[in-house]
Amino acid sequence: MKKIFIGVTDCSKYDNYAKWIAQEPDVEAIKLSYKDDSFADIEKCDGILLTGGEDVHPTFYNKPEYLGYCYPDDIDKKRDEFELKVLNYTQEKKLPVLGICRGLQIANVFFGGTLIPDIPTFKNTDHSKFQGEDRYHEINTEASSLLRKLTGLEKGEVNSAHHQSVETLGEGLVASAFSPDGIVEGIERQQPDGKPMLLLVQWHPERMKKQDSAFTKRIRQSFLDPIRALEN
Known about the structure:
26% helix, 11 strands, two-stranded antiparallel ribbon, single chain, nine-stranded mixed β-sheet, globular, 6 helices, 232 residues
């Protein structure tokens, strides 16, 4: 069985993502981190997992006036710059990308989109943790989306732990799922033919209570299986 290598961007909960994506014996995670100066390791990777974590600095989406809505101790411009560089590499080398939570947000920014810096302030709703635990809410997938095709579900429950979200979509992107209060919960390419997979979700499949949910299991498998097909 040939190994496939998934680059996982560094974050405070890196091990959770690495274990989730590499729980099958043919998958190995490679940490990509500006702190380790390990960008060159991306050359070993067959796909990239963009992890959750800090707020994206609003200067990267030309909204410096939003800085006051970000958490001041939860911004890392060096990480933003590093992951934008990673995304640029994935487009040049046609590597598939799976983005989770912040991963969705930084990818949207890469493609020229903007973010809502604080959902409670801008949308009068709350998607952050509640009493230290992930919230859970329903999402609805778009009928013609890749996400609907991959999961086979029109709706279902996902976890939620974020205070930022998509404001305007990046160029060439389309929303694949929404929460009932209108927050974008999934993004994919508008015209995917001939392009590498871009599967972006706002929830955290790596820590969903129901790991057999299609919104967890099928997200991982739908990302890995096409890579396996190319490598074997």
